[in-house]
Amino acid sequence: MAEKHGRTEPVPEDRLAVWPFAALVLAAAVTLFGYAATDAPPAWLTRTVIVIVGAVPSGGHAVHIGLALLLLARGLHVRRLMALYLTAAAVLWSALMSLLTWDQPWRLLPMAAFAFALWGARHRFGALPDPARLRTAFHLFTGLVVVAFVVGGGGLFLQRGRLSESLTPAGLGRELFDGLTANPGPMTLQGRSWFIHGLTLLGGITLLAVLACVLASAPAPAPGTEAERERVRRLVQHPDSDTLAPFALRHDKSYVFSPDGRAALGYRVFLGTAVVGGDPFGAADAQEAAAEAFLALCRRRGWRPTVLGAREELLPMWREHGLHGIGIGDEVMVDVAGFSLQGRSIRNVRQAVRRTHKAGITTRVLRETALDQEAADQLLAIHQRWLKGHAEHGFAMNLDAITSARHPDALLIVAYDPDGRAVGFQRYHPVGTNRPEGTPTALSLDVMPRDPAGPNGVNERLIVDLIAWAHQRGIADISLNFAAFRPIMDAGARRTPLERLAYRAIHLLDPWIMLESLYRFNAKFRPGWQPRSVLFRSWGEVGWLAAAALAMEFSLPLDRHRVAPAGARMPGLGRRHGHGEVHDTLGDEDAVGGAVRR
Q: Could you give phi then psi for residue 259, rounded to 5 degrees?
């Protein structure tokens, strides 16, 4: 029984245990391997193998069946319905073989008991067969069988002089079939030959490849359509939406909506792992329904559900649905109304801002859609120099398509030198809506590239000026970067031995992302810290989670679903954008310049 909102409810069937079935099939596979590895297996082992297979197999045939059972055991463990069907078919085949011999009818009892138990638990297996995987498996099987018969038939024909019998079409077919299934055929080859062993190996590869394809999770879906992204764009502006909601607008994400369409979440699939960046967004009373729809989709398609950046308030909701989490760091939140440059603790920021004023730096806030092509190219060049030839990082807290105007609500704050040349910029996306004013409740930082040749303090100046700009418009919060593993870096000399080990491991990532430097930069602004967690079903899935998350966050080449390109302007966009207005009160362009001084 499970407790939900103070009520005790039955545990859903798709969360009941399936490991006993997987364990029995695994034990059968191990038994077959032991049988194949023994020159003279004891009588009890042979009898056990007969119960499993229905006959006495050859050693190679036992290995083939054992490997297939290993894949079926894993399929049962991860609740693949196709694994249940294939296991049931294997049990029926074994029972049929026992009926044909009928010398030991007691063998039918364990087979029947297992079959009835498996069929009675069929509703626990929610991962449905995927049509695309079945088509791929069919093509793979057809291709490998054709190769086997062409290569194998040609090989037998070339070696027909060494065969113990004359080669006939029927004899050729029987010999090929027996060779592929690791059974001794009716003919023998005189002398030593690798050929029959090669057929056995090819048969094993065919069996494993087809089974692995049939039992694989569904492939990654196509990214969301423009119509879906427009719906998501509206939900991002809902007053209940979270500061990570804008990053669902990336062009590589797919979407799940609540049944009433008032909440949604964005996700991507890699290595059979469906990764959500942040919590559901939209109406608060519909967010759980969106999460339930996502988890149901994962069950049907055989994906491992994972959430990167879940906030504390929704952890109980996720926990009720079988996800558990660990803290991975904190989102950096600046309280706009409470921010001040006064005081000793913020003097480093104050001095950095003062240096930029002395250098003649001015700033301006504008919509990304207000850029003309020349200005967009200038900012894109800064962004590319900042990346130094590397791929852009980010998934849970980054947008894509920089300077392309593909995100019509994105805001830029740009720093200019005295000659009017851009030396740095930051990109933000509004989230939520203050009613009735219509201004956003918060801004979420995307990227903050600057020209290395520009003066020091440009990023500090841009943040401070944006805070002042936001304060004038009633925007309550600004979400800056993410401080991963903040408690470990903040502990200093108080670190435990385990934390010191973790601290050293964190610095191994410095060639890709300097987490401690980012944390120290964030801390200068005296922000609030919003704890964020990563959620998963079990510790056994953490390895898959880590591989998928790293591929997405660091844009590894294995991750083929890439983001929309930077700099490719949408046709017709220049000074004004063609999308429906969301935050008209922000305007297309606002000069900040030297007017903001604290």
A: -55, -35
Which CATH architecture best describes the domain 226-328?
3-Layer(aba) Sandwich (3.40)
Q: What is the pLDDT, as a whole number, of residue 65?
A: 87
User: Collapsing DSSP states into helix, strand and coil, what is residue 203?
Assistant: helix
d(CA 519, CA 508): 16
Question: Which class for 511: exposed (0-12), middle (13-18), buried (19 or more C-beta within 10 A)?
Answer: exposed
Q: At what angle do helices 43-53 and 81-101 cross, to 10 degrees?
A: 120
CA gap 202, 289 in Å, rounded: 48
- Multiple choice CATH, 330-531+565-595, 1.25.40.10, 1.20.1250.20, 3.40.630.30, 3.30.300.30: 3.40.630.30
Contact 67, 215 (CB under 8 A): no
- Domain boundaries in the chain? 7-124, 131-215, 226-328, 330-531+565-595
Cite the beta strand spans of 140-262 per DSSP E.
Answer: 254-257
Reading the block at residue 100, the tokens are 């044909």
At residue 309, the pLDDT reads: 92
**286: Cβ contacts below 8 Å, ≥ 6 apart:** 258, 260, 262, 263, 280
Tell me which residues of the chain have a pLDDT lower than 70.
1-14, 101-104, 156-197, 509-512, 555-598
For the chain, give the longest Cα–Cα distance.
Answer: 99
What are the two backbone dihedrals, phi and then psi, of residue 305, each rounded to the nearest 5 degrees?
-80, 135
Q: Does residue 452 have a cis peptide bond before it, meaning omega lies within 30 degrees of 0?
A: no
DSSP H helices, 388-495, are: 458-472, 486-491
Provide the residue type at 9 as one letter: E
Pick the closest to residue 368 from 331, 397, 399 (CA basis): 399
> How far apart (Å, rounded) are the C-alpha atoms in residues 258 and 285?
10
Residue type at 381 in one-letter notation = A
Is residue 524 within 8 Å of residue 349, measured between CB atoms?
Answer: yes
Residues whose CB falls within 8 Å of the CB of residue 216, separated by 6 or more in sequence, listed in order: 130, 133, 272, 302
CA atoms within 13 A on the CB side of 462: 28
Instruction: Tell me whether the CATH fold assigned to 226-328 matches the one assigned to 330-531+565-595.
Output: yes
Give the pLDDT of residue 490. 73
pLDDT number for residue 128: 93
What pLDDT does residue 147 have?
83
Give the separation between CA 338 and CA 255, rounded to whole angstroms: 36
- Return the exposure string of 54-66: e unless at least 16 CB atoms fall within 10 Å of the residue's CB, then b: beebeebbbbbbb
State both tokens at 292: 């339930």
> Would you state the pLDDT for residue 487?
74
Query: Measured between alpha carbons, how far is 39 from 584 in angstroms, rounded to an integer?
Result: 81
Provide the token pair at 326.
Answer: 């660990």
Q: What are phi and psi of 561, to 5 degrees?
A: -85, 95
Alpha helices in 105-164 (DSSP H): 108-120, 131-158
- Predicted pLDDT at 397: 85
Tokens of 503: 């601290």
DSSP letter assigned to residue 480: E
Beta-sheet pairing, 263-270 with 273-277: antiparallel
